[in-house]
Amino acid sequence: MRTCAELYREVSRQAVAEKDLRTVVERILIDSVHEFTRPSDVLPGRLLSSVAMTDRTSTLDTSAYYAELQGWNEQTLFARVERAIRDGEPDLDGEVAAGVDPAALTGLVQSVVHGFSVQANLGTAREGLLATAQLAHKLICRQLTSPTP
Fold this sequence. Notes:
Blueprint: H1 2-15, H2 21-36, H3 48-53, H4 60-86, E1 90-91, E2 94-95, H5 102-121, H6 126-145
Antiparallel strand pairs: 1-2
Helix pairs in contact: 1-2, 1-4, 2-5, 2-6, 4-5, 5-6
């Protein structure tokens, strides 16, 4: 279980190392889809989020570990978003717009990723999830560079 979970941490670790926030978000979304849609014989922990969310004595250690992992992923992305805003990080379409809320952006990206995990567990095909990831990325990036009224 920990080996599989660490693959998800690695997605975040590699993504936040990217040069601009637009690419960070893209890597998190797209790479998560690829991890979540690996065949179960290659990645037996695909149901990790489902198992960890059940409230049973047998899953409490798993739940605690999963909560730590998700907290790490969230904190890492949050810090990266804050840095981009603080530094006026240049992006493909200009700087990150003033007024972008790092907590809201982080929460949105994390929520979309969690949704991918659930959908993959329910059998949604990689192609469908990738299309959703691309749309989410486009919408998020539009918001990142749009001045807030």
